[in-house]
Amino acid sequence: MTPPSGGSKQGCTACARVRSATGGRLAPDSAPCRARLQHHARKRTQRAPAAGAAQTACYARARRFRSLPLRVRRCAIVVVEPRERLALDLALVAGGGNGLRHLLEQVAIAPHLAREVVLPDDAAALLLRLSPSRWCELAELEREHARGELEVLLEHGLLVQEDSQADARDRALRDTHWHATAATMHYASRWSGVDTEALQREFTELATGSLLDLLGAAPPAVHERAPAQQRQSLPAAVPASLDALLDRRVTCRNFDRAHVLGLEAFSSVLYRAYGARTVDDYAPGVQLLKKGVPSAGGLHATEAYLLVQRVEGVEPGLYHYHPVAHALEPIRRLAAADAAALARRFVAAQAWFVDVPVMVIPTSRFRRNFWKYRSHAKAYRALILDVGHLSQAMYLAATELGLAAFITAAINEVDIEHAFGLDPLEQGPLAVCGFGLRGTERRDVEFDPLGVAWPAA
Fold this sequence. Notes:
- This protein is α+β, with helices and mostly antiparallel strands.
- The protein contains 18 helices and 15 strands.
- The chain has helices at about 15-20, 35-45, 50-60, 90-95, 120-125, 140-145, 145-155, 165-175, 180-190, 195-205, 210-215, 240-250, 265-275, 335-345, 350-355, 365-370, 380-400, 415-420, and strands spanning about 70-75, 80-90, 100-110, 115-120, 135, 160, 275-285, 285-290, 300-310, 315-320, 325-335, 360-365, 405-410, 425-430, 430-435.
- Strands 9, 10, 11, 12, 13, 14 and 15 form a 7-stranded antiparallel beta sheet that branches. A 3-stranded antiparallel beta sheet has the order 5-1-6.
- The longest helix has 22 residues, at about 380-400.
- About 35% of the residues are buried.
């Protein structure tokens, strides 16, 4: 178990203050802080992050020593969502109803926490009245608000105790300069352990008709703003080699399972999509990169992490691509079976992508982008644009070499972060791409209306 904030095996900062005031003794009826924290962590495995449990244990202890002020403030970014949940109630069935009770819950979503928190209504209302910037003594809040509500917020890390683990995570979020709504959207939309294949099977079993029957007709392919006779026709594009390349770009779902990707082709695609053409010393302490794709401010904050399965001369494993040195930085070697299992987990069990020789995970360094665009409403959107530019460059570079490629946003971001050792407050995967040789057997459907990847028989 990681020691509480402050790095000491003796406990957190609040407990250290208690020891100092009592000549090194804890309260007579207290167990050691570390054992108390382990007890709370076991009780709240499914309810709250460990940092919140640590704060509560120390809060209970520090309340006995009013001469030792405990300072707290609300976390920097939190959204409280009124969410409806359906629950089975047999009493309603007995009364002739359908047995479904509609429950309204207050769900707190805070980027510095590992999970959402369901709050009692009174605690949720109190949370929104607390200041995220002004530190105040806990005793002061107790004079104005119910102690139970404060304990709930402190337990879950929404009310942050100074110098605690929750405070460290909250400060890291503040220092990265996220825009509040962008941070909430990003962290709330991350997946962990999602299996889309299982979800598809479940949908197929439960559905009474086709997807079209369920959803109805799709909106038209084109939104027309004028009658056909009022349109101004444009001259046809002058034929160019780029046209043939664009026509051949087809997302692949049938990679050659036995193919080993050549090192030269692997290197070329990586360089053309992610490699830096030059480095510009723009100002003291500021370097900008020139790449083959645009990026907001020339910052190019989105870099490539790789899961290599079958590449000539490269052992299976996890890597980071250095765009200036044009080199791979090894993170962890993997057995072939372990690499395949990770590939499946990364793309949320989309089986048609698992066999790709190399997965490229465009991962944004939030601090680099937000260094310039601080708390900016458009900064996160710029990072998403980065991924679009990079993936198209990868598609075209691969297609030119006779290779196939894919991109998907249906990914398990949390699993990817764990595998590469990424701090989600600092770096985050926004998609998973990959490239390699297309197989000769069409096992899964591909959208190829021009018949360039799979010519009609």
